[in-house]
Design brief:
heterodimer, A: six-stranded mixed beta sheet, four-stranded antiparallel beta sheet, 12 strands, 0% helix, 54% strand, globular, B: mainly beta, seven-stranded mixed beta sheet
Chain lengths: 113, 117
């Protein structure tokens, strides 16, 4: 079975400092992984996706994530946090059938001015 | 990028009313649409998956007769909350994807906040 674990339910960073949001996955095959961001009272916006091409994936708004098979991780990073990055972030894995997505429990990012 | 439009964004209605929420894919064909429910500060809970032209597949614990899903075309799915009661108040989010292309992400609507008085 596939699953993802987001290790931190809440992360606080100061504006201008790096962001690290952690995600570990469990899968018996080579997974497709996604990061989404959700601002208050909004739907989810795709930040980036990994589909077995380059292990370092660049997304929108300066975010990137690195797929590490040895660590079963897909952590999301950004070099310098902006106030507008404050939101909920979800790590998601696609099932091996290709038709079902499994969501992490989310990480709430707070950016301190 | 791919756009999914969800309407209405917010609805308030009396208990016992039926409410219809629409989910449209604007620039791609959505062979599969998903309906989620989200409680405050929680992750998304999948309610049902619908494939165009087929009956929806509901997750365990979701009442089929309560949450009616129709996916009659490749660009439109609707969720009808029948005889809504206060406990149905929640944030409902739809998403859509084209299953014919491998490893495609879901594209989400902006959600519908449903408040039942």
């Amino acid at each position: 079975a596939q699953s993802v674990t987001q290790l931190d339910s809440h992360v606080s960073v100061s504006e201008g400092t790096p962001v690290l949001l952690r995600c570990n996955y469990s899968s018996s095959y080579s997974p497709s992984l996604f990061w989404y961001v959700q601002h208050p009272n909004k739907g989810l916006q795709l930040l980036l996706k990994y589909t077995s091409a380059a292990t370092l994936v660049k997304g929108i708004n300066g975010f990137e994530a690195e797929f590490k098979k040895s660590e079963t991780s897909f952590h999301l990073t950004k070099p310098s946090a902006h106030m507008s990055d404050a939101a909920e972030y979800f790590c998601v894995v696609l099932s091996n059938t290709g038709n079902q997505f499994y969501f992490g429990t989310g990480t709430s990012l707070t950016v301190i001015p | 990028g791919a756009v999914v439009s969800q309407h209405p964004s917010w609805v308030i209605c009396k208990s016992g009313t039926s409410v219809k929420i629409e989910c449209r894919s604007l620039d791609f064909q959505a062979t599969t649409m998903f309906w989620y429910r989200q409680f405050p500060k929680q992750s998304l809970m999948l309610m049902a998956t619908s494939n165009e032209g087929s009956k929806a597949t509901y997750e365990q614990g979701v009442e089929k007769d309560k949450f009616l899903i129709n996916h009659a075309s490749l660009t439109l799915s609707t969720l009808t909350v029948t005889s809504a009661h206060p406990e149905d108040s929640s944030f409902y989010i739809c998403s859509a994807r084209d299953n014919r292309v491998g490893n495609q992400p879901q594209h989400f609507g902006d959600g519908t906040r449903l408040s039942i008085l």
